[in-house]
Amino acid sequence: MKKLIPFLIASLYAVSAAAIEPVVVKDIRVEGIQRTEAGTVFSYLPVKVGDTLDDEKVAAAVKALYATGFFKDVRLESDNGVLVVMVQERPAIAQVDITGSKEFSKEQLKDGLKMAGLAESKIFDKALLDRAEQELKRQYFSRGKYGVTITTTVTPLERNRVGISFDISEGEIAKIKQINIVGNETFKEKELLEQFVLSTSGWMTWYSKNDQYSKQKLSADLETLRSFYLNRGYLEFNVESTQVSISPDKNDIYITINVHEGARYTISDVKLAGELLVPEEELSKLIKVKTGDVFSREKLTESSKAISDRLGNDGYAFANVNAVPEINKEKATAAFTFFLDPGRRVYVRRINMAGNTKTRDEVLRREMRQIEGGWYAADKINRSRERLQRLGYFSDINVETPAVPGTTDQVDLNYSVTEKPTGSVMAGAGFSSSEGLVLSGSISQQNVFGSGNFIAAQVNSGSINKIYSLSYTNPYFTDDGVSRGFDIYKRDVNPTSLSTVSSYKTSTLGGGMRFGVPLNEKDTVNMGLALEKIDTTVDAESAQRYIDFVNLFGDSVKTARADLGWARDTRDSLLYPTSGGLQRVYGEVGLPGLDLEYYKISYQYQHLQTFAKKYTLLLNGEVGYADGYGSKPLPFFKNFYAGGIGSVRGYRTSSLGPRDEFDNAVGGTRRVVGTVEMMFPFPGLGADKSVRLGVFVDGGMVFGKDENFDFGGFRYASGLALSWHSPVGPLKFSLAQPLNKKDGDKTEVFQFQMGTVF
Fold this sequence. Notes:
The chain is of the alpha+beta class. 16% of the residues lie in helices and 42% in strands.
């Protein structure tokens, strides 16, 4: 007689009401399976042939089979010593369909569902549906769509399968309607909200998305608010609470922030204590807070870091610098003692490179400023990383300094790089208000065979400048970093289309060699020698001096050009500079012995200074002087020009300076231009530096050889500029109004330059 033993999940741990007498299992049979193999059931079943089956083992068996998740019902029966396992399988998910999704692709949403445990071919469990819906909503909430609704439909299919359909109604994006700060007395709410990334809807929030609530952004804004107060002396400032509410229609979000400002603290004393391995006078200069100053957490942190870095430069890699306060609440003062614990002095045992599968090891090692076996120097390690970054071969560079096992005074220096493609084949198109449509193409490899050498071929087909060139550079021609390069080029110049420059054409064919000699980390001297053949074409509308030049030298001349320059670059960034400066002197000389004997020298000084963290003042000045020597005149195509983007905006390109009898500019032998520009982020984009506005004043002029240099003859213009490093290339726009336009000046209020690579 069969003995039936039913077990439910709720009674797995209870004693069965239908208890059986112990029986030896002679065989095991599985019934009810459709997709699952019998062997799979046997592998999970904790009962084997020959075991004695009792209540305890029956409970364990049912529990084990339920735990697999494959079955929604499990029953065990004993039939004359044969254990019969009867199961009812859960259905499998045959397909997952998503309709109505516009904010995300179906693949993105399915990836989220997969992380929640729901995917095609998986076992279907109704409990997963709630988790899956919550995962979908979470993704939409992250985009500000709090009104999203999701309808789930489960359709049974043949062979014990189901199809799951998610019908999504996305709703509208919830926007921040209002941000209130409560408890502020010293600062106006408007000033405090200017520190936030989150904002109410504005005319640029369609681009920045800053009017969409984000928990992460709000947390960052609250920390920014805290820093704002702590850097202005409010040592007891605290964000007491934050409330975020949403309107019933799920379209508007309201944020309320309650703050406690407290008193404004000043610094009563600053001292140094601990093990002072560096002279106290030198360390004191690194401390940016002084007695009587208003407390600033930022300056305090910078001081501790500066001292730690200074100790790190002497080998104390694990130096600890803590600023311990002594607060007097009655007087609202705080005294700080900087405690120094330098730890042990360590040196670098080995420098290891990883990730450079293509680039040769020596290419990385020659950029190292930290040496193996030398004392650990934080500034040299950081400088080494910067030099690797400037190579342009790597998308990511990580530096680790693990201690050498078994030692207390040694570390290894591990540089891990992620290589990126360094070769490129490009076709480009651009447009400027001066040259019109410009087509260009190039093929280049910055890291030939992993050697660090550079080779490039370029074609540029502008209406004014047509350039065809081939270049090769070895940045380490010598072990100490002297570079050597070769250039072959053909350059055609036809400024006639400018309508402001006297008519002429030149075609230059040349080749040369150049060297770059680093004097230190910031200064470089460049020198070169090139041989050129220049063909010149003039016509009846050309300036008389152009015609006289061709009559004197002929329409084809040869020259040996020597170049010499020096540059010092301390800018913090090449794309978005905000501090530092650039000084550059460049000269070229037509050497005696051939047709042209001339010299031309230029000097540029640029300085950038940041104010209030988001305003950058740019000062730029350039002067140039050129002339012939040995009784030969300066070639007219070596003249200086001014006007347009890059010199004096508001005046047409190359229109300033001496003119010919046709009232066209002919350039001059002396050039002075300057710019004062205050740059700041585009309103509504926060600290994004890729789009910047600028208010500027430009000034400058070009003078001929026979003209007196006169500051009174300078032209000035002021206006508004926009620069954008867009995904399709750099864009520059300016609106400028000449300030002292004279009769005959050719002005251009709106000027632009744009380009792209495709």
